Every structure is written in structure tokens, then in C-alpha cells.
Amino acid sequence: MFKKIILYLFLSISLYANEHFYTIKLAAYKNIDSLHASIAKLPKSLQKHINITHDDAIYRATVATTTDKDALQTQLASYRTVFSDAFIAKASVPQTSALKKKKMLKPVVASNTVKPKEKEEKTKQPLPKHASLHEKLQGKTLYMAVHKSSQMPQNMLFRVTFKEHRVTYTPLRGSLPPANLQYRVTKQKLFMYRKGLFNSSIYSNLEKETDSYYLISSWMKTKKTSTVRYYFKEEEARRYLNFGR
Asked: Is this structure's pTM higher than 0.90?
């Protein structure tokens, strides 16, 4: 229950719990090279959403699961230009234990340029305002301060660490467990999601930037679900929440 609360508050992902998931089942091949050759015929915008699993000597290609069935319906015709038998099907939410049983293979896709892995940097001051959102977050440690609300029974403080394409929420005050997620920044929108559950309708925006914090809002399609401060210094986040050391 605590995990659902934290994901609802920060990412709106708990909305998944009450919705159905769907995927497009593309094809099943015995030869992985043949499957990759077929995938390569698709536009790159479609390729990047494809997952390949290897099970019982068969390579199966599917589109990343989502709650937006209408979006899949729109894309189906495009996938059928190569995979004529592709169809939409319900999908279960992937669990970590289940994923470990399968060899996951994905086509190589373009992504945001990532700096070489380096020692974790604690942000003391914001980067210049002209910097991209990716530059403002990648490799940084921020402190998320959440006031008590109808969704949260108490004030909460989290250390948020962005490393390459993963983000970790570690509680410094409160009883919620840590959350480990993937993230990407596209067109100045921040997407955070569990592996295999990317949904373009769930994202965050940088609404305001001060000398002390970023004000980040979370959205579900066109509905704002929360607005939270991400401080550059832990002391200032604690002061905002009236937390002493």
C-alpha cells in the first residue's frame, strides 16, 4: 500500500492499479536475426517501443505495455505493414521475478547523450536556465520535500538520485520504502516508469526554478496530479518541512 501511495504522489503511476494494460503482439520467430531484420523495416519511432523475449526456443516481439489502448489502435496499422498478423491483446503488469526467467533482448535505439559515469554530484546551485531538463537532472542528487496531504499522512523527505537512466527515491524521513525507477527526458518532459511500463501520458514538468529548488508537477494526460519541491540542499528541504537534524 505504501508503494502505491508514493508512486501516486510523485509519478501518478498508481493509476495503473485500476486500469487494464495492453500490448501489440507482433510475431514469434525461431531465428533472432530474421526477427531483427523484420523490425529494422519499421520506422525508428516504432522500433523503440518493441520488446523481445526468448522463451521455449521462440523469440517473441511485442510492443511495450500501456494503459492507452486507443494509442495502440492508432499504431496497429503501421506495425502491420511489416507484421501482417499483429494484434492488440491484454497484458499483465510485468513483475521483476517473471522478467528474470526470460532473456530480454531489445533493438538498439537512439537515446539522449549521457555523460560518462562519474562520482555522484550533489547540486548546490541550479544550472543556467537555458540548460535542458536532462542536463539539470542527470547525475544530480536532489531532496524532495512533500507536505502532509490527503494522499500523504505525514510530511516526507526523500533523497532523489538521478544516475544515467535510473532514478532512486530514498526516504530520509517517513515510513515509505525506497523506489527505483527508469527515467528519460523527451521534449522537456520527464518520464519516470517501472521497466516495461512506459506510458507517454504520465509525465512531469519543470514548472519553476529558483535558487533553492525546482518546482516539478506531475501529470496524467492533461490533468495535473501533484506539485512538489525538489531542493538542491538537504538543509533547506528540512527547513521547509520543519524537520530538524
From this structure: no
